Amino acid sequence: MSADTRAPLVDIRGVDKHFGDFQALKGIDLQIERGEVVVVIGPSGSGKSTLCRTINRLETIDAGTIAIDGKPLPQEGRPLAQLRSDVGMVFQSFNLFAHMTILENVTLGPIQVRGLKKQEAEAKAMELLERVGVGHQAGKYPAQLSGGQQQRVAIARSLAMRPKVMLFDEPTSALDPEMINEVLDVMVELGAEGMTMIVVTHEMGFARKAANRVVFMADGEIVEVAGPEEFFTHPRSERARDFLSKIL
Ligand code: ADP
Ligand code: MG
Asked: Which GO terms describe its cellular component (predicted)?
């Protein structure tokens, strides 16, 4: 059961983050509803990764609050492990365990953190691997798969923890061009099925197809929030116009 079904699923209020003297996040406010797909874009160094990392508590925050499903982020211990399984994260580098098979990569969390029986975890993992199109690779090791296949395994591995929200931090930027779409297609489908997602990406086709809202960040701030068509055709801020003129 949700702690509070009226609260936004992700509720970020007044969040600041410093690294020494440098302020990477400045008063971030962002509420994300259940089933929403939010695409975060902005220049390199604008704080997109830092924002993602604060949401699953890979980084602490210096001010403000972050709540997931009505519950403030815990500081440590068992609640933190629970949070990490509520918030799935897929990074630019796939981070699969090299010495484990694809199937073992996907069953590890469910067995160790969620306490599933091996057989149960394997059945669920196979279902997810089929869903992302790599079921036939289950017995192989990560190095035997292409980058696009590994990233789809990484998505399946996150989904196996039954997260409430999925964070994607530039999930296709390390991939060869011909593999980008096979990963984005899985993400589009996931969004269409109702998964709540925060996606840092410069793939505008994906944003147009899948995003409910686009969040534009610059210099640690949210500068602009708009629907994808509106944002790409009529960016309001000078910084967004400047950024778009460089990437489009
Ligand atoms: P983006 O993902 O938008 O490119 P990041 O969130 O990675 O930006 O970084 C935002 C800023 O914070 C950058 O200037 C970066 O150098 C700085 N930063 C990020 N992580 C650290 C860290 N662990 N220590 C010091 N500075 C950091
Ligand atoms: Mg980044």
From this structure: plasma membrane
